[in-house]
Amino acid sequence: MNNDFINQSIEFVKGIGPSRSKLLTEELNIKTVKDLIDFYPYRYIDRSRFFKINEIPKNQSEVQIIGKIRSIRRTKVKFRDRLNCVFYDDTGKVDLIWYRGFNWVEESLKVNEEYVIYGKVNWFGTNCSIAHPEIKTRNSFNKNIPRRLHGVYSSTEKLVNEGVTQKYFVKIIFNLLNVLQNQIKENLSSSILNDFKLIGRYKAIVNIHLPESQELLTESTRRLKFEELFFNQLGFQLTKNDRIQKLSGFKFEKVGDNLNKFYKHNLPFELTGDQKKVIKEIRNDFRDGKQMNRLLQGDVGSGKTIVSLMIMLIAIDNGFQSSILAPTEILANQHYKSLNELLSDFDIKVELLTGSVKAKDRKSIHKNLLSGKTNILVGTHAILEDIVQFKNLGLSIIDEQHRFGVAQRAKLWKKNNPPPHILVMTATPIPRTLAMSLYGDLDISSIKELPPGRITTKTVHKYDKNRLSVFKFIRGQIKKGRQIYLVYPLINESEKLDYKDLMDGYESVVREFPRPDYQVSIVHGKMSGKDKDFEMKRFINKETQILVSTTVIEVGVNVPNASVMVIESAERFGLSQLHQLRGRVGRGNEESYCILMTKDKLSEESMLRIDTMVNVSDGFKLAEVDLKIRGPGDILGTKQSGVLKFKLADIIYDTKILNNARLCAINILENDPRLIKKENLPIRNELSSSSNSKNLWRYIS
Ligand code: ADP
Ligand code: MG
How far is the CA of 364 from the centre of ligand 2 (A)? Predict the structure, then answer.
């Protein structure tokens, strides 16, 4: 047999043939023998054990019994024929019933011959029956049915109609596995197998399809999950090592005047332990001559801004420019403003570049960047444009990562050679497991500790029917000089209905809080940048007490005097979004509140989400819960979730295996970066043969 059989079309597998092969490809995307081997069952039925009739547990759904037929009899129930057999063993009897297609049964079954039956049991009191059982003579059973657990495969009606039944799958795969015994090769080194006590690959694949026992199924699953995650992490490590090798980075060795001065005289507060730790991690990156690619996770309000400022000072002290990329104009403005304040007595030029900067002003911004006159550029997407070039960009910071993707990072890379150091900051912490499988090539820093004196925002849930009491509460807060956010969901920016909700809401708020005693701002995505800014500024300057808005204020906005966040139709938001919104308050020293308004009737899932918000304030914990409720796809959006499609592994529950697989991958490449040692040959061979790893092969060939 050809050695390459495993990569051939399933058409050549015994028992499949051209027409079924075509159907399997169309219905299940199974093309090659390998695809078929990789098509794992989604559950199992136990064909390894036989039940004695009097020992069948009441909760057992499917059973297999050896016994004989005592009688075969046609009966009529409501004018319809059915076939009734009494089947017995030495402990009792069950009724076998056929409602249709039983001519062949009647003709071929023989009283007093030994059969093996298999099927779903029904109980009527103590009476047990099985409708349409699978029935085989003892001989034929021994020949045809492997005494194991049998995989149950997902299938389609069309396939079943063409004879591709569960039995068919089992038979084909059982035969195939025998044929492939010498072709399914180990792809992990023996030291990995030993260290993690994993069973061999062939054995695992056989037992994932047709487990000899429950224990072997567990072991096979663990082995195959490990393999899957190991190659995933190995890929990240190879990519990362390659990048580190090829790309040197700028060395920022000096601790210069700007940083020293800022640290001694201008730092408005003592840094938290975590802030110090992160700055240290980044300074180490700056010193080692490699390009930094780091993700900084820190809950809203954890103080990422000051960290970014201080590391930009290091860049400046070493003669380099920096940039900050923000997802919205509001945020870019805010960064620009706070940088200018913090650096007011420094000789540092900060410029702002957003979509609404006029062409004339752009020219001078471009010029100042090229000449090196500008030290820090703050902006939105506009700074990614090719026309924006720097004299020597040494550090690029991306704020609020989840709005930006890999493509944006790549654009920043191209703005200098070697590329600038990159720090991606996100306030939507993603669980470590997710970060590892998604940004496995980034280093990760976390700020978990909040600045001292923070009062946790009090979160409450109110039904729409209690609206009046909420308004009363708001009035009380405004009397105390506080400001209020009132957020409406705009799930789909183009939905007319959502806008109507927002405008209706705005009008009712204005009615409830009339001028001249109250001033209300409104901000939403359909307004021009200028109008938005105008309204935001009124709120920031305390000219208005209430800001009615959509989620455009979700990220980063900082108005410490605003202490109440009211979220309308909170049931329509995801946890991480609710948490982001809640993070807008609790930024000053006042007691802050987040009020989740919902409709009166909630689904169980919505209720769970709202309860979680009320009880959990830590963003990292919320992220874990969110992942469990919604799954990774929803959290990251469909685009990114493709990255996370594993056949067996589940990044929510298989954290331990993922950690082991990651450490193992790092360890192996540390000792053998190009995988050329003899013991790692199996891994090398896997990378050379698997089509998934084609892009990795170049790193080690
Ligand atoms: P985020 O991580 O959400 O970007 P910010 O950097 O905006 O958070 O910080 C939130 C608030 O906390 C700001 O008002 C900031 O001045 C303040 N802050 C940051 N670090 C500290 C600290 N170590 N001690 C006291 N206040 C701090
Ligand atoms: Mg921020």
Answer: 28
The confidence score (pLDDT) of residue 195 equals 96
Per residue in 313-372, pLDDT tens?
999 999 999 999 998 888 898 899 999 999 999 999 999 999 889 999 999 999 999 999
In the block, residue with structure tokens 């005289």:
265
* Domain coordinates in residue numbering, the chain: 1-44+150-184, 48-146, 266-288+303-426, 458-616
Give the pLDDT confidence of 183-217 residue by residue, as tens digits: 899 999 999 999 999 999 999 999 999 999 999 99
The CATH number for 48-146, chosen from 2.40.50.140, 2.170.150.70, 2.30.250.10, 3.10.580.10, is: 2.40.50.140
The CATH H-level superfamily of 458-616 is: P-loop containing nucleotide triphosphate hydrolases (3.40.50.300)
Tens-place pLDDT, residues 607-635? 999 999 999 988 888 888 887 777 665 55
Sheet holding 593-598: strands in order across? 458-463, 593-598, 562-567, 483-487, 546-549, 520-523
* Residue among 267, 269, 310, 401 whose CB has most ligand 1 atoms within 8 A, to mutate: 269
Take atom 16 of ligand 1 and give the residue whose Cα is closest: 303
Fold of 266-288+303-426: Rossmann fold (3.40.50)
Nearest atom, ligand 1, residue 303 CA? 6
Q: Is the pTM of this model over 0.90?
A: no
Minimum-distance ligand 1 atom for the alpha carbon of 304: 2
Residue 534 token pair: 């105008």
Q: Which of 489, 473, 487 is nearest to 593 (CA)?
A: 473
Distance CA 229, CA 44 (A): 23
Among 306, 378, 424, residue to substitute to test ligand 1 (most atoms within 8 Å of Cβ): 306
